[in-house]
Amino acid sequence: MWKSIVYKEWIKIRRITIILFILGILVIMGIYSGVRHDLVLTNAELVWVKILIMKDVYFTLLKFIPLIIGLLVGFAQFVPETIDKRIKLTLHLPVNEETVVLKMIGFGLFSLSLVYGILLLSFYSLGSYYFPYEIAGTSLLTIVPWFMAGLAAYFLVAFIIMEPIWKYRIFYIIFGTAFISLFFKGGTVGDYTPVLFTLLLLVMLSSISTLFSIYRFRKGEL
Amino acid sequence: MIPKLSRYFLIILATVVLSQVLPAIYDNLFDVRINTPYVSFGAEKKVFFIYNHREGKGPAFMDSKGENYTRDQYLNATPSENYFYHIKNGTMPDSINGIRVDARLLQRESFNQMTFPFEFSQPEYKLYPLLESAPEAELVWPKDFFRIDDGIQFIDARSNHIDEAKSVTYTGIMKKAGFVFPATLVAGMPTVMKQWDDGWFITDKEGSLFHLKMVKGEPYFVKIAKPENLKIKKMVCNSYSSREFYTTVISDDNRIYLLRSSDYKLMELPIDDYNPNTQSLQIMGTLFYKTVVLISEGSIKAYAIDRKYNKVAEYARTWPVKADMPVGKIFTYLFPFSIEMQPANSHFVHFQVNTSHSWRWIYLNLLLLALSFVIIKRQDRKLSSNIFDLCIVALTGIFGFIAVNIFANKEY
Q1: B25 and B85 housed in the same domain
Q2: Residue B275 carries which DSSP code?
Q3: Is A84 helix (H, G, I), strand (E, B) or coil?
Q4: Which domain holds residue B55?
Q5: Is the per-residue pLDDT at A94 higher than 80?
Q6: Which of A28, A59, B156, B373 is 20 to 30 A from B332 in CA distance terms?
Q7: Residue of A nearest to B347 (CA)
Q8: What is each CA distance from B369 to B7, B338, B357, in whole angstroms?
Q9: Would you kindly state where each structural domain of chain A is located, as residue ranges?
Q10: CA-nearest residue of chain B to A203?
């Protein structure tokens, strides 16, 4: 069953995932070509002074990219399921509904993790080419919550799209927006470091939320 | 079972999110401006002057004896502080308190330093520039930055490579002076917008204090004597033209010391109620006195200290804080607790749970609990399968009530 689910989900999300992945890579390359430009064309120490002393965040361009990826992959994967209520077909298969949905989410999570992993790795590798680990590592810790927000957004989009009743969808959109806002409170580099684990726990709490809507979908609350 | 679990997860998540978001929205909508008075010690009349901002009425001046002043009376009573005004008007006295003064002398000895609670808790890169402290012209940024781990390492900014030779030289000199790597605190004033650079004040693994700077390209590194039991928590460096002290040292037990420039002696200020978690520390200096002001949300304490570091006067005042006002009281009726992500005393993000100081929230919690019973009964649901919901509402009040209702419990 895994194989057929992977195939079905991959068809839905492949185009958008690849496009967004390339976009992410281009943004990271853009950020570091800017850094390289400044290091070569101005005095290199002034680039460091801007970062270390003026607390300049040189990678703000990346801020909402993981969030956009999470949202759009979620849309691409779950909107088709609601057209003509196609999900009902899947849920009527002689297999456990929860397992099917969890596998769908699992595949999305796997794809996103792969994309996010490569983006984070490229960001850190390019960062450590130009900067010592104090800057590269702290910058990495700063962007991690943005990627967590992307994962949370993916889970919530799946959950909200699968929610059958519009009244509740609106509540959940408001709740989801409030939740996502927690990942973007910061102002300085490295400020989220003490709460990364707590945020991860919160993301994990949202991970199986789709089961809540599916449960009701299945029970015919339409 | 798993769908149930997914609902519980969502409720817990929503409760956490709401306990951050709702109090933050409330605070944002009903914030109150509290004007902190400005207090300084007048060298001429030997009283504290208090400057208050009054909404729509302009400033009000009074002294610690309760006497009111107009703006002009205040300025005329404090020439050693407001010398700019007197120079402009040609009313500058020749001498103050029997000492011949001129504007340059007064300006040289004047400074104003603020240390906020968040400065004790903020992210740091732990990379520092070592400027030439005696440049021929203006200060310039060095080409490299240093870190102090097992040794001191200078990293060239252009190549991102370690300058081995320089690192070995400096590490050797530091070891020779008794420095035990790594560093615990590195304090300085990394800016070129000043006239000279005093380098860095560094504590080592054992808590000893050292001074590192570069003079004519050569390292200067000395150990600074300090009492054995003095553990340093924070140093605030300066480049005041009086060159009286290098840095303000705050100890672990919140005592305040000034590290005197002339002899590296730590001069303790006679203040024993400074709390850096809740109070901002302001130190103002003039030719005659220092005014040390501790400012918290609802109080101000000021100490006048003479040039020999003896306390000559003190002043304290309190005012109502937000919690005492109607908006603050309503807050305690609404929310049993709140989660603060950006507390004022830190530049880190936290999940700080602020519990209520009163039990007023219990009324709303009980009301919402009763309402939950009614809802459950009306929807003909079994009490036994709603125990979790009821517990959440009882414990978290409005947050849990919203959470259990937007993620409604359905029984089929």
Answers
A1: no
A2: -
A3: helix
A4: 38-104
A5: no
A6: B373
A7: A191
A8: 19, 19, 21
A9: 2-218
A10: B13
